[in-house]
Amino acid sequence: MTDVTSLARSSPRRICRIGMVLDVWKRGIPLGVAVLVLAAAGCSAENSASTLDSTSSTAAPTPATEELFVGECGSMTDEQLGSITGVPAIASSSKNGVRCRWEASNSGAYAMFTWYRGSPIDRERSVAAQIGREIAYIDVEGHPGFTAKGADTSCEAGVESGDGFLHWSLNYAFAVPPRDSCEVVEDLARATVANAK
């Protein structure tokens, strides 16, 4: 016959075994009731702990902001892009559901919009910082983001959108920027958020 006290000391899980509980039950009702209460308490504590573990490990992180629904190319027209960037003759050179590019053949200037869905904005900002870009934090109508200035006339901006982010990159190449390139790219991000449906 197994001693209940030593059994409880060695492993609370063993009390949950039905055979041992029945063994103890035969020794007397008072002792059996005490052991069943102990076993039930041990089993329920064990189950609630495993439930907490599985719940906390499978819970998906909640996006910090609502997802913006933008049209193709960030809902940006060639005319609007030309007006914001101040680059003459910049026009769409490629587009698809998540990425669009505009180029000015006479100056080499280009702008690019990308919609990253399900991708964390912090990773993009970290990569930009690692390659030596100057990072500044921005907020666009409650959507946190950043700008990353290059050593030349290039800058990029990312704005959080749900579990992803909207991204603009801009390089004036041989064109003359009308003002700081990061101010311009931030204005592109602001126009996209304003155009979001």
Please render the helix and strand layout as text.
Elements: H1 4-10, H2 12-15, H3 18-26, H4 29-58, H5 78-85, E1 91-95, E2 99-103, E3 110-116, H6 121-130, E4 134-140, E5 143-149, E6 154-161, E7 164-171, H7 181-195
Antiparallel strand pairs: 1-2, 2-3, 3-7, 4-5, 5-6, 6-7
Structural class by SSE content: alpha+beta
Kindly report the spatial arrangement of strands forming the biggest sheet. 1-2-3-7-6-5-4
Shape: globular
* Number of β-strand runs: 7
Q: Helical element count?
A: 7
Give a brief outline of the structure.
The chain is of the alpha+beta class.
Task: Please describe what this structure looks like.
There is one protein chain. This protein has 197 residues and is an alpha+beta fold. It has helices at 4-10, 12-15, 18-26, 29-58, 78-85, 121-130, 181-195; strands at 91-95, 99-103, 110-116, 134-140, 143-149, 154-161, 164-171. Strands 1-2-3-7-6-5-4 form a 7-stranded antiparallel beta sheet, with helices on both faces. Strand 5 (143-149) and strand 6 form a beta hairpin. Helix 3 (18-26) runs antiparallel to helix 4 (29-58). The radius of gyration is 31 Å and the shape is globular.
